[in-house]
Amino acid sequence: MRTLRRNVLAAALSAALALSVVSCSGGSGSDTERAGADRHCPLSSRAVPSCGILWGVSTRPPTLQQLQTVEAAVGRPFDFVYRYHDLNDVIPDAEERKEVAQGRLLHIAIAARDFAEPSRAGFSWADVARGKFDKALSAQARGIASLKVPVFVTFEQEANQKSKLGVVGSAADFRAAWRHLHDLYQAAGATNAVWTWVMTGSAKNLARAASLWPGNDVVDWISWNVYNQSGCHGGSVDERKYKSFADELRPFYDFVEKRGPSIGMDPHKPMMISETGSVKYINDPQLTADWYASIAPTLHRFPQVKAVAFWDSVTETCDYDFDNDPDVIKGVRKAVLDPALDSGRTVRTDR
C-alpha cells in the first residue's frame, strides 16, 4: 500500500513539474506553502539566486523516480540534485539529463577514482594534474557544456578527509588537479560550470581544508557538509551527542570568515551546504524532525548560505533516510516550504 501511495504521488508530481519548471510547487495549497509561488528570483551566471536559497537533494538510488518520490513526500520540487561520479563516467547520464529537462540544476562531484575498482590505486590527484585522464575528463566537460545551463561542478568533494589528503595525494597535488580540470573545462567550452569547492565541515578537518584552497579565480562557491551523526559511525546512535544544524554549520562558516583571507580566499563568495542530514532517533523521531525544522530559522541568520542539499540515504552505520518517516518529513517540510527562503524555482540566468 505504501509503495502504491508513493507511486501515485510521484506520478502526480511529475505532471506538476512539467507545468512548473520556473515557479515553486504549491505543496499542500496553504497560504504559507504557496507564498513563494509568485516570486521570481533570477540566477546569476554563477547560479546565485537573487533572493531565497536553492534547495537540493541527493537520493539513493540516484534516479528520477526516486527523486520524484522524495519531492512528493516533502511537497515541492527541488531546485537541484547532487550526483556523484568518477573519472571515467559519462556525464551527464540519462537520468541527469531528464532532471535538467524538468527544470532542475545539477551538482556534479567528480572523484579521483573508478568506483568499479576495489581501491584508489592508479587514481591519484597528481595523475589528474599531469593529464592522465584528460580524454575522459574532456568528454565529461563537453557533456556538461551541452546542458547550456549552470552546473555546479566539484572535484574530489571532502578532500580534507584523512582517507583522502595524504592518501590520494598531497595538498599541492589537489590544487594542481583542480586548476587543471578548470582549464580543461574552459578549453571544452564548459563555461556553464560553476566551480564549487566542497570540504567536510568538521572542526577537526579545518587545518587540512586551509591547505586545499585552489584559488579565488577557479572557485565560485564555497561549500561544506553538515551532519548530526550522534556517534552513528561507531555503530550506535547516542542522543547525548546531538548537535544542532547551527552547531555543525558554525565551525566551517567561522573558518571561512576568519581564516579565509589569510589563505587568499574571498570569504564573501556564496556558500552552499552541499550535504546535510540528521541520523534518526528511533525512540524519539520528533527530535530528528525538530533538527530539520531548525534549518530554516538558522539560515535566516546566515544569509550568505545560498544553497542547501539534503542527504537522503543510508550508509553502513548511519541512517539519514528521511522520506519514509512521516514525523521526520514534517520537519523537512518546515525547512523547504519556508516562504522567506523560496527562490521561485527559476533556472533562468542573467547572462
Q: What features would you describe in this structure?
A:
- Helices cover 33% and strands 16% of the residues.
- The protein is of the alpha/beta class and 351 residues long.
- The protein has one domain: Alpha-Beta Barrel (TIM Barrel), CATH 3.20.20.
- Strands 1-2-3-4-5-6-7-8 form an eight-stranded parallel barrel, surrounded by six helices.
- The protein starts with a helix and ends in a 15-residue tail after the last helix.
- Mean pLDDT is 87; it is low at 1-37 and 346-351.
Mean pLDDT: 87
CATH topology: TIM Barrel
Q: What share of residues are in beta strands? A: 15-25%
The span between the termini is: 47 Å
Unreliable sequence segments: 1-37, 346-351
Structural class: alpha/beta
Tell me the number of helical segments per DSSP (H or I, 4 or more residues long). 11
Query: H/E element string?
Result: HEHEHEHHEHEHEHEHHEH
The CATH homologous superfamily is named: Glycosidases
Helix content percent band: 25-40%
Spatial arrangement of strands, main beta sheet:
1-2-3-4-5-6-7-8
Q: Which CATH class applies here?
A: Alpha Beta
Total discrete domains: 1
Q: How many runs of DSSP E, i.e. beta strands?
A: 8
Q: Please tell me what the overall shape is.
A: globular
Global Rg: 19 Å
Biggest sheet descriptor: 8 strands, parallel, barrel
> Which CATH architecture would you pick?
Alpha-Beta Barrel
List descriptors.
alpha/beta; 351 residues; 11 helices; disordered C terminus; TIM Barrel; globular; eight-stranded parallel barrel
